[in-house]
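User: I'm preparing a small set of examples for a lab meeting where we compare how different chains pack in three dimensions. I only have the primary sequence for this one, and I'd like the structure in token form so I can line it up with the others. Please keep the answer compact; I'll paste it straight into my notes.
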Amino acid sequence: MILSENLNSNITVFVLSHNRPQYLPDAIESILNQTKKPREIIILDNGSTNDVKQSIQKYLKDGVIWVGSDKSNSVFWNIKRTKNRTDSKYIFIMHDDDRLCYNFLEKQIQFLERNPNIISVGCNGYLINNKGNRFGYLVTSKKRKEIEFYHSIYEIISLYSSGQCIPFPSIVYRTEFWNAIDFKKELGPGTDMVFLCELVKLGIIAYQPTILFQYRMHTNQGSKSLNEDVYKKIENFYKRNCRNNPALYKIILSNISKAKTRRFLDKWKWYLVKKKLIRSLAYLFFIMRKSWFDWHELIFFSIGLIFKFININEQKKKKIIQKYKKNGDVLKNASSHEW
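Assistant: Understood. Below is the structure token output for the 339-residue chain.
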């Protein structure tokens, strides 16, 4: 496909790239295979090694634009390079390790065209592994089955503090609003939430539950689990911006306690997995004495562990049965063989 044939299209796709030659061609291919073709595909490379550009030479010949850098800079620096770089009506910022479903651009832009008061829209997606295979989970909860509209910073904070989100690599923006907001680095990996809190001041943000992209999970991932210092900054941001709303402030404090309890219980689970029984019991006793510990979360967490254990045992049982069936067939064939 030659991109010059799509000059009448109303969307530009930027791909943020850094040292992922094994994934970048896959990302570009998913853009080129869209039912709605983009006007431009611009690779913003953040100082990668030469093999990254070499991996996409055939796409560059077809009109994909490469904008490189002599050295590696911060992620925020690379994102800022998207500002005021296109006059397309819509803009989409993609990660180099993700993939789009074939109708992503069509469905997202259709939504914005039908809803002129919406300034950006996100969606749900599949989780995929490093080989590109789905492993049964979605990026956000499958219980979110209705289209959601966010009108204020309070609604964004309420969503994120509850453990849900609008997946950042799924959001399509009206370009004028994307250009109007700057990224604040105060929360590091939590900056996307702060950005949406600023964006919602300009207009309504939407989320549609349609599954339209694929979010890759792998070891060399930028969005790794956050440390407690970052969580503390995010929690302080929630509190600072909700003090004027007493009812919401109370909900936010409850959400923070639940989320913190889940994080520490996950850490406790790994002690159990590694069979460090004494350490796990000491750690559980330690967190149960904290003021933020939520007993309801412990109950839900325990029930989840029990069901997971039952499921693992069921899977093992099925494998054993299949193995014995296979061995039985072999013995049956051997006994009927004429020597």
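A couple of notes for your slides: The first strand starts at residue 11 and ends at 17. Confidence is low (pLDDT under 50) at residues 328-339.

User: Perfect, thanks.
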